[in-house]
């Protein structure tokens, strides 16, 4: 970084937000180091001149954006002050040494005066004039001695005070220097953290890019496969808005049968995809026998003249040809389909009626191994004898259906593939892909495959409006 082009920004709303910084300065910066915990960022501008202009307008910037701006110079210049203070202390030490030498010289002079005084006293007895002269000189010497002593003490006190003041200044400079070193260490650590985060983000972006590319290639492969095997020139009419009603029944809690743990999220997955395809979604949870039958009869009595299609998704325990209500009553799938056939519901005549069942259809397990996990299950054959019906099963008749701790794989694949291909591809092709995805489940002991039963006369394509 160029220190002359760097400014410290503080006062970001809700943390040092890159989007807020870009909104204020647009593309005027080369680099931004964020410190979200203290709502501060270190910004390197494109040139020192631009940084100087921003610093010159710090009052206007604070008023308009709430950001406080400062340069790095106050953080860096104290190093020069430390050097200056050391030089001043050195000069004071030299001055103190000189004063001490002068004091020693004056003490020597005082000793000489004392000797001279002794000589004068011995000569006092020899002559009175010499005595008076000696007394006069002695008084003068005493006065000089006192004056020199007082002056020396005053000079010593002044020097001691000045030395103490310089030592305090030196301690302050050392404290500032330690603070600056700590700030530099924190800045270095922040730069290292920022660099590590940048590397991790690049690796994550690369990984996501590879996954997206792989998914894109898989989607293209499926589209090519579908285009080569399905004629889309004869679809059912799909022009109404809303396209139709989608009923979702998810029985999770039961009276005596085991609860279907992990199934809670399947309702949301199906709701999202069918709302995205233009349906009015109606959801039910834990319906007993009477309420399940009533819910389907209500749809049979409703007027679907302004709809193109009807969808029903049922998730529960089951046995062959049946699904269970929350009060543990097995209901024939054909009995649930009957209220919306052409005779019971004329407004749905000639329109596709689609049923998707996530429930076991028996107790047998696909492949030979025994099964000791949760399944929705007991055996009876069924078939629809009327046109324009589609029945998608999460398993094949006579076998258990898989359900994981976070939901049913059949529901996950159905929702994703309808969302990705529903507006452009025929339902039968999409359900073939669902079957393929179920078959790809990585399970060393068991095999999983879905099945479909259709009397549709045309292609079902949920074209975008």
Automatic annotation (TrEMBL):
Recorded coiled-coil stretches: 89-123, 149-232
InterPro entries (alphabetical): Caspase-like_dom_sf, Caspase_cys_AS, Caspase_his_AS, Pept_C14, Pept_C14_caspase, Pept_C14_p10, Pept_C14_p20, Pept_C14A
Residue spans crossing the bilayer: none
Keyword Transcription recorded: no
Domain Caspase family p20: 242-364
Keyword terms: Coiled coil, Hydrolase, Protease, Thiol protease, Zymogen
Superkingdom of the organism of origin: Eukaryota
SUPFAM superfamilies tied to this protein: Caspase-like
Any one biological process term the GO annotation gives: positive regulation of neuron apoptotic process
GO cellular component: cytoplasm
Domain Caspase family p10: 386-464
Keyword check for Hydrolase: yes
Molecular-function GO terms, alphabetical: cysteine-type endopeptidase activity
Similarity remark: Belongs to the peptidase C14A family.
Protein name as annotated: Caspase-8-like
